[in-house]
Amino acid sequence: MAQVQMDVVPDAAHVQVVRLVAVSLARLHGVPEDVVEDVRLAVGEACARAVAAHRRHDVDQPVRLGFEGGPGLKVAVSDGVALPEASGDEAVRLLLAGPDNRSPDADSEAAPAVMALLEGLAEQVSVHTGHSGTRIVLGWGAGR
Q1: Which residue in 30, 43, 94, 99 could disulfide with 22, CB within 3.0 to 4.6 Å?
Q2: Whose CA is closest to 43, among 129, 117, 113?
Q3: What is the pLDDT of residues 72-118, one digit of tens each?
Q4: Can you give the residue range of the structural domain that contains 96?
């Protein structure tokens, strides 16, 4: 399994670079060409969500990405916004509620749409929250 790690300054301008890396690694690890655009969109949206969370909550540290390939591709996107420990549906609920466990603020009203988009684009999606932040893992298989 080949692995690539990236730390990205929480700036929306860097999301495009992440998309390019995701597309290149998807192709390298045999993700079917008709799925590569889904990889680009999903990884870009997950990264943009993490960047927005960092900016909204004044988190200075970088957004972390981990790419694991062969065959197929798994991408983990991690932010540093502390939430209670949870995984699966409970983690998604906490993620949508925000760090103070209340309704999303005006900046995060798009969060339900982003999560639905990720679930529609990736073959596998897992969400984990915790005191060190949120980790969204997206996965796609290799071609047949």
Answers
A1: 43
A2: 117
A3: 999 999 999 999 999 999 998 888 886 666 545 444 556 788 899 99
A4: 2-140
